[in-house]
């Protein structure tokens, strides 16, 4: 790895746009919350749980990820989980983050969406005071019927109004294969009518056709993962022309065997074709690293140069769901840092 460039990236101001907050739950906190809440886990030690993080595909990860989330019962649990992420993000010089949460994982255990959002919100407000701006995106679980997503959306309606400046969008996650975006056309149309931002996981394990569906049927503003788009030149051209961003997560892709070698990752090819890609951590507690570790892994494997790293960072800021004025201010800070000497204080 190029140590100078890695160090420059580490301290660069950046946005993270693909992070499942339940995927930031470290094993230590899972055990602490299990004890606090009297929840019994299927693993008898932190090491045993960590040893189970040997995934073979997306589903093998999701099974353990949902089991880990079972310790979240009270507002305070969501707060503690989110504050731990805020601290890790600040340590990686993340200045803006857009966080996913999975309400259906919690409502099925009798935990209301309002409880989850209140706990996440209080930690994000604390993050704002410490220099990390943020948005929250409610994701539907695609392995469940669309009726469940519609019910979840209706339940969340008052929250979209109450937390207007934080809870700004909806997304689609969980098991991709066999659950195409078309299954969720109606609920996304409702979210669109409400003026919410729209994102969907597509082209992680699923084919390029799922990315087309996310664009054409769900009318998403960003695509999560989308790394299999590279298999279809027409799709690559469409993404490049429209500047619809792909929120790429290298360590996730490696751990879930989307690519068997990081050197085979499509990120650089997508970047070369003019697609707005950037780097994110997805589920950092499960995949071995927060956002900077993801930058280092891809920098090392694909031998990215200074200009390519700058583009990734800039794309993260430009693809954020913030006002134009906020976007310009964020990019100006990156430019001052990147081009004006990188002492970590944004000197220019
Ligand atoms: N893909 C789909 N669903 C998810 C993921 C992912 O990478 N992480 C958490 N839920
Ligand atoms: Zn994801």
Features:
52% helix; binds zinc ion; TIM Barrel; binds hypoxanthine; 348 residues; 8-stranded parallel sheet
Task: Describe this structure as you would to a colleague.
The two termini are 26 Å apart. The chain has a single domain, classed as TIM Barrel. α10 (208-218) links the parallel β5 (197-202) and β6. By secondary structure, it is α/β, with parallel strands linked by helices. Residues 344-348 have low confidence and may be disordered. The protein has an 8-stranded parallel β-sheet. It is globular and about 50 Å long. Helix content is 52%, strand content 14%. Hypoxanthine binds next to α4. Zinc ion binds next to β1. It catalyses: adenine + H2O + H(+) = hypoxanthine + NH4(+). Substrate binds at residue 283. InterPro entries: A_deaminase_dom, ADE, Ado/ade_deaminase, Metal_Hydrolase. Its EC number is 3.5.4.2.
* CATH homology superfamily: Metal-dependent hydrolases
Measured between the Cα atoms of the first and last residue, the distance is 26 Å
Number of strand segments: 8
The distinct ligands, each listed once, are: hypoxanthine, zinc ion
Q: Outline, from the CA principal axes?
A: globular
Describe the main β-sheet briefly. Answer: 8 strands, parallel
* Low-pLDDT segments: 344-348
SSE succession: HEHHHHEHHEHEHEHEHEHHEHHHH
Number of folding domains?
A: 1
Instruction: Classify the helix fraction into a percent range.
Output: 40-55%
Strand content: 5-15%
Strand order of the largest sheet: 1-2-3-4-5-6-7-8
Gyration radius, in Å: 19 Å
Number of helices: 17
In the CATH hierarchy, what is the architecture at level 2?
Answer: Alpha-Beta Barrel
**Arithmetic mean pLDDT:** 97
The helix-and-strand class reads alpha/beta
The name of the CATH topology is TIM Barrel
CATH class: Alpha Beta
GO biological process, one term: adenine catabolic process
GO molecular function: adenine deaminase activity; zinc ion binding
Pfam families: A_deaminase
Organism: Caballeronia sordidicola
